[in-house]
User: Which sequence fits this backbone?
């Protein structure tokens, strides 16, 4: 296949994304039952670019081809991360109907900015996360995970998603931010409202009030935490900008690690013999291997990395249906273009079946808006520590249902279970070393 190129704007040549076929809703409960099968069907029917709906009436293009995605995500000249031109086309009454609008609207952060503003926000956020001591983070994860296990170890059963994965991710993130227990509780309620699709105004107000208070606290008395490093960064973020950088960290650093922990535990518990055998044979620890595999087959963010064509764009040298021929497709200006990390990770050109140590997946995106390296390191340390602590404390964990019977939260962006029920021999709580 030839490398992808982007033609000059115009009106001739190629097929419109609208003409490839009917739009596929990727937000429904039906879609999340078996998304990999649906991505395979998309590839056969549409090729590299798929007309989809992110919510009822919310049109977008889903990119399911690796090289096409890399080309788009690294072409800031023609594809903007700033959604405001798109937002101007959406009536206010319609915005309130879309649960996902909160996760797409413009904010003064690096995800939704271009150029110098993007660089300024990203440098501040990256520096704030890079200041985390990894050894201290490992200890924090172990303490938080141990305390979570102590809340249910006497019961002989638990929902690991609600009683373990979520509380561990939440506890670690609010601690490294520098939150008081009261502020942490308020942020937890706001984060749950965001991903559960509460209305935009309510979610924004909940986050705004809590994060402004955190900002005021750190301006008055900075410490060794992420919020303080953001306050003191040379970018000189004002209060509005502080809120948005902190919101980016909170929403990503809780939801993504929580789902990475849960999805990896699902893999380990579903295929215990395979991972136990790998460890016994002298290969690297099963936790590391399972995380690598999960980032390919059940990545926590399935579809995201949203961009918007600044003008109508013709994407050349992409696979099209009808004999897998190569052609070109027109994308309309200012309509969301979403990268499917899940579909790309499962494509033949990326997924070789060898996962251990393989970093070719798209789980963290690509280009200037990809997940910063300190955030990737933090997510992995949280997942490894939480999983190891749980399995060390409760080694005889078993799922209470067949993995195929587990339910997944509907929505176009995440890959998240609704629960992860397990049973185990009852045990006594163990001391937590501070």
Assistant:
């Amino acid at each position: 296949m030839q490398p992808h190129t982007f033609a000059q704007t115009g009106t001739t040549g190629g097929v419109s994304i609208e003409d490839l076929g009917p739009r596929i809703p990727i937000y429904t409960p039906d879609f999340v039952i078996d998304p990999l099968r649906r991505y395979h069907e998309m590839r056969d029917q549409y090729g590299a670019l798929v007309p989809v709906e992110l919510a009822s009436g919310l049109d977008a293009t889903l990119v399911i081809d690796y090289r096409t995605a890399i080309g788009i995500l690294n072409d800031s000249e023609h594809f903007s991360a700033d959604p405001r031109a798109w937002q101007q086309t959406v009536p206010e009454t319609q915005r309130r109907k879309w649960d996902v609008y909160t996760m797409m609207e413009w904010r003064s952060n690096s995800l939704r900015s271009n150029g110098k503003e993007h660089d300024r926000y990203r440098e501040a956020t990256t520096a704030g996360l890079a200041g985390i001591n990894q050894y201290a983070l490992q200890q924090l994860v172990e303490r938080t995970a141990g305390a979570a296990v102590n809340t249910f170890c006497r019961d002989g059963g638990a929902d690991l998603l609600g009683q373990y994965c979520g509380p561990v991710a939440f506890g670690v993130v609010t601690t490294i931010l520098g939150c008081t227990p009261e502020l942490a509780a308020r942020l937890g309620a706001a984060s749950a409202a965001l991903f559960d699709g509460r209305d935009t105004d309510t979610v924004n107000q909940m986050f705004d009030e809590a994060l402004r208070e955190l900002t005021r606290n750190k301006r008055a008395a900075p410490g060794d935490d992420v919020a303080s490093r953001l306050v003191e960064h040379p970018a000189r973020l004002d209060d509005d900008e502080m809120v948005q950088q902190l919101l980016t960290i909170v929403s990503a650093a809780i939801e993504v690690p929580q789902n990475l922990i849960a999805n990896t535990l699902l893999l380990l518990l579903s295929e215990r013999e395979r991972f136990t055998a790998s460890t016994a044979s002298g290969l690297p620890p099963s936790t590391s291997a399972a995380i690598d595999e999960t980032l390919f087959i059940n990545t926590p963010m399935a579809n995201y990395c949203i961009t918007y064509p600044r003008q109508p764009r013709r994407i050349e040298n992409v696979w099209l249906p009808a004999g897998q021929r190569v052609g070109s497709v027109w994308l309309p200006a200012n309509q969301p273009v979403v990268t499917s990390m899940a579909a790309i990770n499962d494509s033949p050109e990326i997924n070789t079946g060898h996962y251990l140590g393989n970093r070719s997946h798209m789980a963290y995106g690509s280009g200037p808006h990809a997940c910063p390296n300190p955030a990737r390191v933090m997510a992995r340390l949280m997942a490894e520590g939480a999983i190891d602590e749980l399995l060390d404390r409760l080694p005889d964990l078993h799922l209470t249902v067949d993995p195929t019977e587990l339910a997944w939260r509907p929505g176009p962006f995440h890959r998240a279970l609704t629960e992860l029920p397990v049973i185990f021999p009852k045990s006594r709580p163990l001391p937590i070393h501070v």
